[in-house]
Write a structure and sequence with these properties.
Number of helices: 23
Mean pLDDT: 90
Number of strands: 24
Radius of gyration: 28 Å
Structural class: alpha+beta
Helix content: 40-55%
Oligomer: single chain
Length: 713
């Protein structure tokens, strides 16, 4: 295909040009940051779909975004700092080209200084009681506040923010105690208002201390990554620099797996705490390490002495604990249960993040059997092309559901942010005989058409796809293709997210002949746009649902059109394709659904709730007196009571796991609990209920009707 040929040519171009970047040629200034600037500029100029001119206007946008990334709540920098920085506002473009780090060095050094001042200020503030009788307020729309003029104003800004946090905690503590006393519950100790305020302040101090500790762990390279991203995100919101640790996390998120012990860790008060044991992982199977334990030291197999991780950066500690499959690691642990110190030896293994993967449930409605598949993302193994991916998993779930006599299928893509382009093309092929699925276009190429190459159809029965405003990228490709073919009915908000672009990772080390810095990270670059088979782009406009239903996102700006620097919408020539001919009364089914929705009291209530949420989000002024805060909360709770029925709703349908999962439950009670919670949420999900109603209405013509029950592997 032309686009693939272009990518190969582009890679060859970069490989040939790699002699331009060696440590020898920058011996006069071998600084890693300058090397990164040079590489990133080079890659974007040659690889981006629509590279911008790096001029004064570009420079000013980078300036604003970078400063906002450093100090989004306007509580570190002073007004005079910003004025000093502004001398470089229209010069960043030139400084990037010249690899001049003066601006970055100035902002980084100043931020470090202001950070220490703020840390001292917040500690001093939290040492003294707050006066919750005082009449004062705070506006929490921080990004619109002017920068403080001096240390005094910085301290005052912190005082107001910390007071709001303490007031919120104080109110919760006092309200809980008052309710317990009113219900006649015997308490070990009834705290006075003074004691409640002190306890609230201690909780806020603990949380704030953790924030400062974690921020203090950030190194120069982390802040330089902020600067690099302020630069590259001017090209579009999905072009990003990834330091090695961030790239590893991205790969883990996309594949749903990693090699390690299977525990989630968090840094608190300088110590590394185990917050969760991942079901099915090595630590879970061994049953010694528990949530709440504190890891003190780490030793690799063969180490004579363990390495203390007290005070170590969390990322560095995690890298010590993770490791290749079948290797052993010894953790020196302080047990939560009794405070004892113990060595725990764990053999590392591949850890699967179950929440990443497709899951299915069977349900019977009015005597007919249906299947529901939830797909969180179009996952794929970034290291192994033949590894687990969303398309093969969906195929397997459909086969399993068909064995249970499925007569209609719902695929839930709500909140699915996308993933693998290949996976979505393969997945679309499960529902159509053959034909184009999506068109992909580079900036100077004619479009390439990605086709379903498999002439077989795994599922030729009724199909509904659920989407919302957070369904993006690959989700939009599948929904758009099924809509254009009239293969499925799309139910969701007015439109999906609107991300119609394709990105590719470029490991920056590939352009270095020699390198003294190790892995210097990767650049994710927007290289193409994708288009529906009807020629329209999903960029900005997304996919408009066949059946529009209100949801909590209806009045909140969260789409691609609300991001900074999105690429524009456009249209290309339609591909040649034949619409699905398996349904009768397709349009009538949509009309029936729209009519039902217009009469649904539950959906009317959800629409009112969405409007109410928007109003609450826009009310950013908070009274910092106890009585004022209490009145606001009480009034909000009273107004919100009319929405309690949203959570109380039930369809009275019973959802069940498939036989293979029932066997897993015998050993994995955590998985069993997760599935039971999911099934309960499905039973109260009005959107899934309407999807089942649509499946009931969708009629298959006589030619295809006999095929539905057939199981095709």
């Amino acid at each position: 295909m032309r686009s693939n040929l272009k990518l190969i040519a582009l890679a060859l171009l970069f490989s040939v040009a790699s002699c331009s970047f060696t440590t020898k040629e920058i011996d006069d200034d071998p600084d890693k940051d300058k090397l990164l600037l040079d590489l990133i500029s080079y890659v974007i100029e040659r690889g981006h779909f629509d590279p911008k001119a790096m001029d004064d206007s570009f420079s000013e946008s980078v300036f604003e975004d970078y400063i906002d990334a450093l100090d989004p709540y306007r509580r570190f920098f002073h007004k005079k700092d910003i004025e000093e920085f502004a001398a470089y506002k229209d010069k960043i473009d030139d400084m990037v080209k010249e690899k001049d780090l003066t601006f970055f060095d100035l902002t980084y050094t100043r931020f470090e200084e202001r950070f220490k001042e703020a840390a001292e200020a917040q500690r001093a503030i939290l040492e003294k009681p707050f006066d919750f009788s005082k009449n004062e307020s705070i506006d929490t729309e921080y990004e619109k506040l002017p920068y403080p003029k001096n240390k005094k104003e910085v301290k005052e800004r912190w005082r107001l923010q910390l007071k709001l946090s303490a007031l919120s905690t104080y109110y919760d503590l006092k309200d809980t105690q008052d309710k317990q006393l009113a219900e006649g519950e015997e308490l070990e100790e009834v705290l006075t208002d003074v004691q409640l305020e002190e306890k609230a302040r201690e909780e806020v101090a603990d949380g704030t201390s953790n924030f400062f500790d974690l921020t203090e762990e950030l190194e120069r390279k982390d802040y330089f990554a902020y600067f690099l991203n302020a630069i590259v995100e001017e090209f579009d919101p999905h072009t990003n620099y990834f330091a090695p640790v961030q790239k590893d996390r991205f790969d883990q998120r996309m594949s749903g797996q990693f090699e390690g012990i299977g525990a989630r860790l968090q840094k608190r008060n300088g110590a590394v705490h185990v917050t969760d044991i991942i079901s099915g992982g090595p630590a879970w199977r061994q049953e010694e390490l528990q949530a709440g334990d504190i890891i003190l030291k780490v030793a690799q197999d063969g180490d004579e002495q363990a390495t203390s991780i007290q005070g170590m950066r969390l990322d560095d500690a995690i890298q010590l604990i993770k490791g290749p499959k079948d290797t052993k690691v010894t953790l020196n642990v302080k047990r939560k249960i009794d405070g004892s110190i113990k060595d725990i030896v764990i053999t590392r293994d591949v850890v699967l993040l179950e929440e990443t993967y497709a899951r299915s449930a069977a349900v019977t409605k009015d005597g007919r059997n249906y299947g529901v598949i939830n797909l969180p993302s179009f996952y794929f193994d970034t290291e192994n092309a033949g590894g687990r991916n969303a398309a093969t998993d969906i195929k397997q779930e459909i086969i399993r559901l068909k064995k249970q006599g499925m007569e209609g299928l719902v695929i839930d893509l709500r909140n699915n942010g996308g993933g693998s382009l290949k996976a979505v093309v393969d997945m679309a092929g499960l529902f159509i005989k053959e034909g184009p699925v999506v068109q992909v276009k580079s900036s100077d190429d004619t479009p390439d058409i990605l086709n379903d190459e498999d002439k077989g159809i795994l599922w030729d029965g009724p199909l509904v796809i659920l989407v919302n405003e957070n369904s993006a990228s690959a989700s939009e490709i599948l929904a758009a293709a099924m809509q254009d073919y009239k293969r499925a009915i799309i139910i969701g908000g007015k439109q999906t997210f609107g991300k119609g672009t394709v990105q590719r990772f470029f490991p920056l080390n590939r352009w270095l002949r020699s390198n003294d810095y190790g892995d210097i990270g990767s650049l994710k670059v927007t290289i193409q746009k994708f288009y529906r088979v009807n020629g329209g782009s999903t960029q900005l406009e997304g996919v408009k649902s066949d059946v529009v239903v209100p949801d909590v996102y209806s009045y909140i700006d969260i789409g691609e059109r609300d991001q900074e620097n999105p690429l524009p919408w456009d249209r290309i020539r339609a591909a040649t394709y034949d619409a699905w001919d398996g349904y009768i009364d397709y349009e009538k089914t949509i009309q029936n659904s729209v009519a039902r929705i217009s009469k649904s009291e539950q959906l009317k209530l959800i629409n009112e709730y969405a409007k109410w949420l928007k109003e609450r989000r826009e009310d950013t002024e908070w009274d910092l007196s106890y009585e004022g805060y209490k009145n606001r909360i009480v009034q909000s709770e009273e107004l919100g009571k009319r929405f309690d029925a949203i959570d109380d709703y039930t369809s009275n349908l019973t959802y069940n796991s498939l036989p293979y999962e029932l066997k897993l439950f015998e050993k994995d009670t955590v998985l069993k609990d997760k599935r039971e919670r999911w099934h309960k949420s499905l039973a109260s999900d009005v959107y899934v209920e309407e999807a089942l109603n649509v499946l009931q209405d969708l009629k298959i013509n006589n030619i295809r009707k006999s095929k539905i029950a057939a199981i095709k592997d």
